[in-house]
Amino acid sequence: RANPGLTGLNESEIRDGDVLFCSDMDGLGPTESLGEGASADHVAVCLRDDAGVLHVCESTTPEVVCTPYQQWITHAAAEPRTIILAPLRPDLRANFNRTAA
To answer: Which top-rank group of organisms is this from (predicted)?
Structure first.
């Protein structure tokens, strides 16, 4: 089936510390997830900079990279990928320190 494109992720609803769980449906992703018992083969955290611009931050080799959300989501939507947004619970959000992250 054709890629249905991006549905349901509204940038204005994403807050600091929210997590994106990503599962690629090609390559080694499904095999790695099966072997690890995981439901996602990649995890990223969302953070806004001091200007309020939303970024997706992820661990890559050799460093952590923070990509502007619009650039990240455009690339992600072009892949055969499932992305699930997991907002922080209110009690965890209250203690989340964006600048320390």
So the answer is: Eukaryota
Count of domains observed in the chain: 1
Averaged pLDDT, groups of 10, the chain, 101 residues long = 64 93 74 69 91 94 93 84 88 90 80
Token pair in block for residue 79: 């892949």
Nearest in space to 16 (alpha carbons), one of 71, 95, 83, 82? 95
In a domain, residue 25? The reply is yes
Q: Which residues pair with 58 in a beta bridge?
A: 65
In this predicted structure, what is the pLDDT of residue 67?
A: 96
What's the domain range around 37? 14-81
Beta bridge partners of 40: none
